[in-house]
Design a protein that fits this description.
Pfam families: Trp_halogenase
GO molecular function: monooxygenase activity
Protein name: FAD-binding protein
Strand content: 15-25%
CATH architecture of the largest domain: 3-Layer(bba) Sandwich
Strand order of the largest sheet: 5-4-14-15-16-13-17
Oligomer: single chain
InterPro entries: FAD/NAD-bd_sf, Flavin-dep_Halogenase_NPB, Flavin_halogenase
Structural class: alpha+beta
Largest sheet: 7 strands, mixed
Number of domains: 2
CATH topology of the largest domain: FAD/NAD(P)-binding domain
Number of helices: 15
Low-confidence stretches: 417-424
Family: Belongs to the flavin-dependent halogenase family. Bacterial tryptophan halogenase subfamily.
Distance between the termini: 30 Å
């Protein structure tokens, strides 16, 4: 049973059903429903090609995203996925995107029920979920107990991690707030690759500019919670504050000259957190239910889909008897936590603005174990594309060792303590207090052919 029908839940359910498992999915909302997180990475295309919906998304008319432009402090650089890594992704309307993914799950024989909220989970003496208490719209509570394995994809509400196990740890450095709205006929920065995102820093945060289909553009500002709180009383409405913030950035304001703002201004907190564990006997926690990082590098849907595919591979292999459930859980924990840790290190480095783009690129090289005398951004591009996570999950010889990631995390944290910190002070305690599992997990790799699952390596 999968709880949650967002990108993580629908993708995990589809992948499991395609491996001939009987899958039920519960979703509390009725789709389509609004959601932020519109800019996707090439890794999302790779996962969705595997589940068979990428062509549908291409035909739907979403903006094809080929890269973007960073203007970060005094630096400016272009990343072009087509030219650098031969890939692309989408800028999506999440209401439409999520509905397409959920319908694709139905088309693959997943039993999808909308308007049913999972309220509680019964856990047996061994720590295994054995029943879920559900509440349908306007109905009476009822119980579902005919499942062998539970996948928690309930997003930030975190049915298991936040509401039952209470094992999610916040990162106090990344207590940010986003405020955003939509425009018609806005422009993009010069040299932006076709359909690309613009990311523009300011002294107190940063802006996103995302071109959507139909001439619409999503423009948002992300800043610290305390700064937002200081500014907000000066304005009568969120819209008034938002317009002032857009005007304060010369590059961003220049993009909306002659454009028209449409729809409401929205505000949302995006506090960073990570669960102490991503699974246990009879369950896995995927997507935002397990961890949320930061919107800076558009990692939300990447982490959702990467964890969904990895979880499905682990569950399918365990169900077929190819690996034990303990081995499957260990691999999932390792692969997902490694991805989160590396992205956390890179995001934290970028908030330390004094390093500049060359410092970001060198850090990216170290995070991938690449030669550090290269004068290019390829490692940075591969990480923000999410492709390094997929590659390492499928190739044991390219695994980044736990010690290397931990070393980089400590370096970032030490720089913060020494007083060189930027707007956010990185805190890796939630990662460093729960070291990645490495040695045993290197006995396996993720494979998608001839079937999705785990394969023992020569070492294993």
């Amino acid at each position: 049973m999968v709880i949650g029908g967002g990108p993580a839940g629908s993708t995990a359910a589809t992948a499991l059903a395609q491996e001939d498992l009987h899958v039920r999915l519960l979703e509390g909302a009725h789709f389509p429903r609004y959601h932020v997180g519109e800019s996707l990475t090439p890794s999302c295309r790779t996962v969705l090609e595997h589940t068979g919906i990428a062509e549908t998304l291409d035909k739907h008319g979403f903006t094809i995203k080929h890269g973007g432009v960073f203007r970060w402090n005094s630096d400016s650089w272009v990343f072009d996925w087509g030219a650098q890594i031969g890939s692309r992704s989408w800028q999506v309307d999440r209401a439409e995107f999520d509905q397409l993914l959920l319908q694709h799950a139905r088309d693959n024989d997943v039993l999808v029920t909308e308007g049913v909220t999972a309220k509680d989970v019964a856990i047996d003496a061994d720590g295994r979920p054995v029943a879920v208490t559900c509440l349908a719209d306007g109905g009476e509570p009822y119980t579902i107990d005919d499942f062998d394995f539970l996948v928690d994809a309930t997003g930030r509400s975190g049915l298991l991690s936040a509401r039952h196990l209470h094992n999610r740890q916040p990162n106090p450095a990344l207590r940010n707030i986003g405020i955003w709205g939509y425009w018609e006929d806005a422009a993009l920065l010069p040299d932006t690759p076709k359909g690309g995102i613009n990311i523009v820093s300011s002294p107190e945060g940063w802006y996103w500019v995302i071109p959507l289909a139909g001439g619409r553009t999503s423009i948002g500002f992300v800043t610290r919670k305390d700064y937002f709180g200081e500014r907000r009383p000066s304005y009568q409405t969120h819209e008034e504050m938002y317009r002032a913030l857009v005007e304060e950035s010369l590059p961003v304001h220049g993009l909306v000259v002659g454009a028209r703002m449409t729809g409401p201004v929205r505000v949302e907190t995006d506090y960073s957190y990570v669960a102490e564990s991503f699974g246990g006997p009879g369950y896995m926690i995927i997507g935002d239910a397990a961890a949320f990082l930061d919107p800076l590098l558009s990692t939300g849907v990447h982490l959702a889909l990467f964890s969904a595919l990895t979880a499905a591979a682990c569950i399918a292999s365990s169900a077929r008897g190819e690996v034990t459930q303990e081995e499957a859980l260990r691999f999932f924990e390792f692969a997902y936590r490694r991805s989160y840790t590396r992205l956390l290190a890179l995001v934290s480095i970028m908030y330390e603005r004094y390093l500049g783009k060359d410092g970001f690129f060198r850090t990216s090289d170290r995070l991938l174990g690449e030669a550090q005398d290269r004068d290019d951004s390829l490692s940075f591009v591969e990480i923000i594309a999410g492709l390094s996570d997929l590659r390492e999950a499928g190739d044991a010889s390219t695994r980044v060792l736990t010690e290397r990631l931990t070393e980089e995390a400590l370096k970032v944290q030490e720089r913060s303590v020494s007083g060189h910190d930027g707007p956010g002070k990185p805190d890796f305690s939630s990662v460093l207090d729960n070291p990645l599992i490495d040695a045993e997990s290197a006995d396996f790799r993720l494979v998608t052919s001839p079937r999705l699952g785990l394969e023992r390596t020569a070492r294993g």
